[in-house]
Amino acid sequence: MPYRAPVSEFQFLFDHVVGFGQVQATERFAHATGDVTQAILTEAGRMCQDVLAPLQRNGDLSPARLENGVVRTSPGFDEGYRAISEGGWIGMSASEEAGGMALPQSLTSAVNEMMAGACLSLQLNPLMSQGQIEALEHHASEEIRRIYLPKLISGEWCGTMNLTEPQAGSDVGALRTRAEDNGDGSFAITGQKIFISWGDNDFTGNVCHLVLARLPDAPEGTRGISLFMVPKRIPDQDGNAGMANSLKVVSLEHKLGLHGSPTAVMQYDGATGWMVGPPNGGMKAMFTMMNNARLGVGVQGIGAGEGAYQTAVAYANERRQGKTGGADGTIIEHADVRRMLMEMRARLFAARAIAAMNGVAIDMATATGDPAWAARAALLTPMSKAYGTDTGIEVAQAGIQVHGGMGYIEETGAAQYLRDARVTAIYEGTNGIQALDLVGRKMMDGGEAARALLDELAGQSRDDRVLAAIGDMRQATDWLIEADQADRQAGATVYLRAFSNVIGAACHERAAAAEDGAEGPRKSLAAFFIARMLPENAGLLSALRAGSGTLYGIAPSEMIAG
Q: Which of 174, 201, 421, 516 counts the most CB atoms within 10 A of its CB?
């Protein structure tokens, strides 16, 4: 079955569930009217269905490759990228002064999810550029913004993020890449970076690398890291891509999935770069890009899950196997197949609603400057990323199971969704790190933002089961705030999952209430999630309170028995 962009699902969420009307009511985003929003979702959905979705298998079967130092991309990816850039989808939320549309981030995230559902390997390219655009808008000098932003927003050039080194993965402070002052406002960047998504391509005029590096005599750790713009080709006096810089793609990684997205090992040999932000202030600037990307990666997971779900439903409606008792005799009438499909759809709705709420909070913080909205956005970001990507992986896994033996056969395309989605729980900060961020930095306010969200959900709920779950979550938050660091970290992942389930249940309840009629699919889906999936929280919160002691009873030397 061809991919169908969930345009109506986003419109429903915006209209009835996540409070998008608040965003439209602000002066900053007043131009994002209902008609404009509908037109953007419809046009983007059409592009995803007609142009990007047919490229999904191309990226898997004909991976990006490195030939004589040149990255050759998958067949049709150049045309797909052109449709994205010419449609203006890269710079949707960028400033109008630089050529963007200044649209809400919540709307951009919806479009990003649809692109990811259609062709995740290609969508990763504009996602990187969007993060770089935001980082430059907030931290770069006027000259860098003048040169790079219009080209990035138009898609003539694209951007990357260079953090990871062979010895410095999640511990970014251990990086060794050096930056030496050239004495003319530029710096010589030397070092190697790994896992660089879309480190190069053959369809844009330039690739703009944001690179973390260390100045001579800089402090140890993250306090001594600076950020630099290091382009593949150095812009000339007119701002056009000029002579080649001293950098290269050493190799491309051979990966489980995302074969169409070239993941590069980059070598910088005294490459010319320009500082973004103040000396030793690189992490602050890079976190602007990373926070943008974390929501973006969350919707990547949801998009991959949506593609897997649609593929599974189509197969279940066609495959005849066993006695079902149904009129058509297809496996969608089997109780366990129906259970899997319902879990897939219900979890996807919950994850999508959380990501949309996150986008609304970001937009409201931008439009109003209210710290409470900024705190809400910060709280939801790790949940959007971790719950969204976990959902994508779980849904893709279930999609293979729905296919039965055929799910294990590559020709069906079911396995590709799982292979592509798997990395989303790892890059842009592993989901374990997201959970630690939630119970660490995001609780430095004593749980104020968490309790405010729970109070809001409780005030809008009329379902006793949802209200009880909210109450349990409030008690769990109180326990977490009082817990020592070891116990807090030990329970981080289950706390994030449980909190996300509560938000998801509340959003399902809102959706059911907004649906016309006494019965309907949204009411049925909400009843399923609340009755069959929300009870998972009892076990999760029990595990939370078990603390850290149960994790360290076996010494590292005893982890393998025998």
A: 421
Q: Which residues pair with 157 in a beta bridge?
A: 206
Distance in angstroms (rounded) separating the CA atoms of residues 404 and 398 = 10
Domain locations in the chain as residue ranges:
158-284, 433-549
pTM, to two decimals: 0.96
**Cα 539 from chain centre:** 27
- Which one-letter amino acid corresponds to residue 309? Y
Mean pLDDT of 290-304: 92
Q: What is the β-pairing status of strands 157-162 and 206-213? A: parallel
The whole-angstrom separation of Cα 100 and Cα 90 is 8
**What separation, in Å, do the N-terminal and C-terminal C-alpha atoms of the chain show?**
50
DSSP 245: P
pLDDT tens figures, 14-35: 999 999 999 999 999 999 999 9
Name the amino acid, one letter, at 439.
Answer: V
Query: For 456-472, what is the mean pLDDT?
Result: 98
* Residue range 158-284, CATH number: 2.40.110.20
Phi, psi of 91 (to 5 degrees): -100, 30
Q: Report the distance separating Cα 500 and Cα 420, nearest Å.
A: 23
- Give the pLDDT score at 284: 82
Q: How many Å apart are CA 148 and CA 434, to the nearest integer?
A: 31
Length of the chain: 562
User: Could you give the CA distance from residue 507 to residue 511 in angstroms, rounded to a whole number?
Assistant: 6
As to burial, measured by CB atoms within 10 angstroms (0-12 exposed, 13-18 middle, 19+ buried), residue 253 is middle
Quick one: pLDDT band at residue 321, thresholds 50, 70, 90? confident
> Over pLDDT 90: what percentage of the chain?
89
The residue assigned the tokens 């196997």 is: 321
CB burial class (10 A; 0-12, 13-18, 19+) of residue 11? middle
Longest dimension (CA), the chain: 79
Average pLDDT over residues 493-522: 95
Whether pLDDT at 11 is above 90: yes
Helices of type H across 426-534: 431-439, 448-460, 464-482, 485-490, 492-514, 521-528
Q: What is the pLDDT of residue 293?
A: 85
E runs forming strands in 163-313: 178-181, 187-197, 206-213, 226-231, 233-235, 241-244, 247-252, 263-276
Active site residues: 428
Amino acid 380: pLDDT: 98
DSSP structure string for 388-450:
HHHHHHHHHHHHHHHHGGGGGSGGGSHHHHHHHHHGGGTSSS-HHHHHHHHHTGGGTTTTHHH
Q: CA 226 to CA 212: how far, in whole Å?
A: 6
Q: In this structure, are residues 207 and 199 in contact, taking their beta carbons and an 8 Å threshold?
A: yes
